């Protein structure tokens, strides 16, 4: 295909229309508006440890694909943990940072991160990209390249290029053409169905009302309240105000509001909690949550049940609520594998990581089987005549 690549360090160096043509059918967190909000709000860049190194793929003078990449000086905000690898480098007096990361900051969701114009999206392009990223990693003396939450098709190409493959597990909801929430509850065993209804009714007895706002229904005051919840919850949980700045959410409100669902919980008319989702035809993605007051069952309602109701109403195929949390299993989410691929420039360390993840695979697969066994759906009886 006679492809070449260039590297840019700012979203201002990428034409918004070119990005749109490359990101056809991409989830909203891979939109130009999302990455621009990250940069302009200084949630990435500056002293954040996330420095944009987006790869632009060219055929002659035609831009055919974009790969969002970052130079990282730490391993926070990634959700695929490599701290042990960094410690091993340090023990051998080698620099693990900076490293190169193909990922959407603070977004642990599987997606195709080679944003290609449809007419150029082919195996040859994918193969070129994986080799080009390895070349860049070596030329710029990064310790390693980490491609997070990669889709299955690209994972297979990466393995051919001798990237190391790693697994993790998330929990995701799948829309089986449900007509309403009660239709979805019909999948559960009788006891668990009663438990969920009881859990939701409990909020009503505490005078909690849940409001779903999307698009132009959301006001600047609603978004400001959400940020207040987000900030306070991060302070309580982690001791800092969160990775994302207030300006990020203001930018999202201005430029990506059509893809936002905001859930607000009110108790006796006063707002007490909020959750923010992104969505388009590809699915619903639960991203951020916060509460000013603890109420039993509030998190489950705002972050899970409200999302399921919205996905059913909008006929969205999936609902990804974020990473971790076995409690999701009892509320209708099922385990899925998430994949990442890695290449370390130091051959001995790359070989050691290959051995490590091969052993880790057995643990991850066992965990997947354990979690899959406790999903509380009714067992489908096989036909005796089969």
First-to-last CA distance: 51 Å
CATH architectural group of the largest domain: 3-Layer(aba) Sandwich
What is the CATH superfamily of the largest domain? Gcn5-related N-acetyltransferase (GNAT)
Backbone CA Rg? 22 Å
Q: Provide the helix percentage.
A: 25-40%
Mean pLDDT: 95
| Order of H and E elements | EHHEEEEHEEHEHEHHEHHEEEHEEH
Low-pLDDT regions? 381-386
- In total, how many beta strands? 15
Could you walk me through the main structural features you see in this protein, from its secondary elements to its overall organization?
By secondary structure, this protein is an alpha+beta fold. It has two domains: 3-168 and 336-373, Gcn5-related N-acetyltransferase (GNAT) (Aminopeptidase, 3-Layer(aba) Sandwich), CATH 3.40.630.30; 176-316, Aminopeptidase. Helices cover 38% and strands 25% of the residues. It has helices spanning 16-22, 32-40, 83-91, 123-139, 152-160, 181-185, 190-205, 220-238, 246-255, 298-314, 347-373; strands at residues 3-8, 50-52, 54-59, 62-67, 69-72, 99-102, 115-116, 144-150, 164-174, 208-214, 260-267, 270-280, 283-291, 318-320, 334-344. The chain has an eleven-stranded mixed sheet with strand order 2-5-6-8-15-9-14-13-12-11-10. α2 (32-40) runs antiparallel to α9 and α8 (220-238) packs antiparallel against α9. The relative contact order is 0.14.
């Amino acid at each position: 295909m006679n492809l070449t690549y260039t590297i840019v360090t700012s979203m201002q160096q990428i034409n918004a229309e070119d990005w749109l043509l490359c990101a056809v059918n991409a989830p909203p967190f891979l939109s130009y508006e999302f990455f621009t909000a990250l940069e302009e709000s200084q949630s990435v860049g500056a002293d954040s440890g996330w420095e944009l190194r987006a790869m632009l793929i060219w055929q002659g003078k035609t831009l055919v694909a974009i790969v969002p990449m970052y130079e990282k000086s730490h391993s926070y905000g990634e959700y695929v943990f490599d701290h042990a690898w960094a410690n091993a480098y340090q023990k051998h007096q080698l620099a693990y940072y900076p490293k190169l990361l193909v990922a959407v900051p603070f977004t642990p969701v599987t997606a195709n991160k080679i944003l290609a114009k449809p007419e150029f999206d082919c195996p040859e392009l994918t193969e070129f990209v994986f080799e080009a990223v390895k070349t860049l990693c070596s030329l710029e003396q990064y310790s390693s390249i980490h491609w997070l939450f990669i889709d299955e098709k690209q994972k297979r190409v990466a393995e051919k290029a001798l990237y190391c493959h790693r697994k993790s597990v998330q929990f995701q909801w799948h829309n089986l053409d449900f007509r309403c929430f009660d239709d979805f509850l019909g999948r559960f065993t009788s006891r668990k169905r009663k438990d969920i209804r009881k859990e939701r009714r409990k909020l009503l007895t505490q005078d909690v009302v849940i409001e779903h706002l999307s698009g132009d229904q959301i006001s600047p005051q609603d978004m400001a309240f959400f940020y207040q919840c987000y900030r306070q919850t991060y302070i309580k949980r982690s001791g800092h105000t969160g990775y994302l700045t207030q300006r990020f959410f203001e930018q999202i409100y201005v430029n990506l509001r059509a893809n936002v669902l905001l859930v607000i919980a009110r108790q006796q008319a006063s707002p007490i909690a909020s959750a923010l989702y992104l969505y388009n035809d590809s699915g619903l993605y639960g991203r951020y949550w916060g509460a000013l007051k603890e109420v039993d069952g509030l998190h489950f309602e705002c972050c899970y049940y409200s999302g399921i109701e919205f996905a059913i109403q909008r006929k969205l195929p999936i609902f990804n609520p974020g990473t971790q949390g076995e409690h999701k299993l009892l509320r209708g989410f099922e385990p899925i594998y998430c994949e990442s691929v890695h290449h370390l420039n130091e051959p001995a360390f790359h070989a050691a990581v290959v051995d490590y993840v091969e052993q880790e695979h057995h643990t991850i697969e066992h965990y997947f089987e354990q979690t899959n066994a406790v999903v509380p759906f009714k067992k489908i009886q096989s036909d005796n005549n089969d």
